[in-house]
């Protein structure tokens, strides 16, 4: 999970960052952890994916 995403995010890092976020998201979803802390982490990762994809104009 990236610590801080801002409007100055460098899209040159998008490929590596998206790959890392998707891998971490898959691990969390695969662990079947449904506690509030895990759900919060999943939501944050999903938001990071959407932010990068929107900022860098990346289609699904």
Describe it.
With 60 residues, the chain is an all-alpha fold. Helix content is 62%, strand content 0%. The chain has helices spanning 14-30, 36-55. Helix 1 (14-30) runs antiparallel to helix 2 (36-55). It is elongated and about 35 Å long. 7% of the residues are buried.
Shape: elongated
> How helical, in percent, are the residues?
55-70%
Q: Which band does the percent of strand residues land in? A: under 5%
* Main sheet overview: none
Rg, Å, rounded: 12 Å
Distance between the termini: 19 Å
Q: Give the H and E element order.
A: HH
Which spans of ≥5 residues are poorly predicted at pLDDT below 50? none
Protein name: DUF2524 domain-containing protein
Organism: Paenibacillus radicis (ex Gao et al. 2016)
Salient structural properties:
60 residues, 2 helices
Secondary structure layout plus pairing:
Elements (H helix, E strand, L loop, with lengths): L13 H17 L5 H20 L5
Structure in a nutshell:
This is DUF2524 domain-containing protein. Helix content is 62%, strand content 0%. Helix 1 (14-30) packs antiparallel against helix 2.
